[in-house]
Amino acid sequence: MPGGAVRPGAVGPTGQLMLWAILSDIHSNVAALDAVTRDLESRGVEGILCLGDVIGYGPEPLVTLRRAMDYQVTLLGNHEEAALYYPEDFNDRARIALEWTKDQLNCSEQASQWWDFLGHLPKHHELENALLVHGSPRDPVREYVVPRDSLNAEKMEEIFSLIPGDFCFVGHSHVPGVYLESTGFFPPAKLKHGFQHSQKKALVNVGSVGQPRDGDPRASYVTWDGSRVWFHRVEYDVQRTQRKILDTGVLPPYLANRLQHGR
Ligand SMILES: [Fe+2]
To answer: How far, in Å, from the CA of 54 to the mean position of ligand 1?
Structure first.
């Protein structure tokens, strides 16, 4: 097994490596984001990196956008790109949510502030020994890397060849876990919820704060100190977000239902 059992949330004494929280796919879910924020503060996190999809699907896009403005880094996700340009590969439900989200931005008194922030989001960011993207190093905004891709040697080889350092952190698929060069995909439970970097490059999917899709409805995020990654799951008030989705009268009820199943 790669890595080893590492103690979740361990933080070194002052002067040790900085501890970052890496979040992705918040999707306008404030109840989930509040719970994650409380959790990461309790772990002594010193900075927050966000891999995109702050908006889309969920009921409170203005609140999650406002929070993302304060993070050290926020990247462009495919939902932000679709809001700015055109939703090319969106299904009907995602498209309805996108149009509703754009209406919320446009009806706000701070409309120009929201669009200006979205319009300046970067597609990638390099920090220490890590590359941060929403999707993959090959197509930073749109390409999915999912567990079955670990059987696709050609795709994984090309993706790993584009990772300049030890780590690449991604979101987008909403399925957390670690992909290692030529050895496959490891969900957090197999890693005992922690991962220690060794020789191989690691592509780490941090999961989704606001719409997990691995069968666990709890919000997902990771902490990272430069060499170790810890996966965290946080319970939140799913019903609050479901009620807010239904109260819009526009967002499809399916988007509320799926939250309780983590699908
Ligand atoms: Fe997403």
So the answer is: 8
The Å distance, Cα 213 to ligand 1 centre, comes to: 10
Q: How far is the CA of 53 from the centre of ligand 1 (A)?
A: 5
Q: What distance lies between CA 260 and its chain's CA centroid?
A: 18
| Average pLDDT per consecutive 10 residues, the chain (263 residues; last block may be shorter) | 37 68 98 98 96 98 98 98 93 96 97 98 96 98 96 95 97 97 91 83 97 98 96 98 98 98 96
φ, ψ for residue 7, nearest 5 deg: -75, 115
Bridge partners of 178, per DSSP, are 186, 204
Specify the residue for token string 């590969």: 89
Report how far ligand 1's centroid is from the alpha carbon of 27 (Å): 7
Please identify every residue whose CB atom is under 5 Å from ligand 1, which is an ion.
Answer: 25, 53
Report domain extents, the chain. Answer: 20-261
CA of 24 from ligand 1 middle (Å) equals 8
- In CATH, what class is 20-261? alpha beta
* Contact by Cβ (8 Å): 233, 206: no
Tokens of 223: 């902490």
Q: pTM score, two decimals? A: 0.93
> Which residues partner with 186 through β-bridges?
178
Please give the distance, rounded to the nearest whole angstrom, from the Cα atom of residue 56 to the centre of ligand 1. Answer: 8
Residue of 211, 227, 192, 198 lying closest to 33 (CA atoms): 211
| Ligand 1 midpoint to CA 154 (Å) | 25
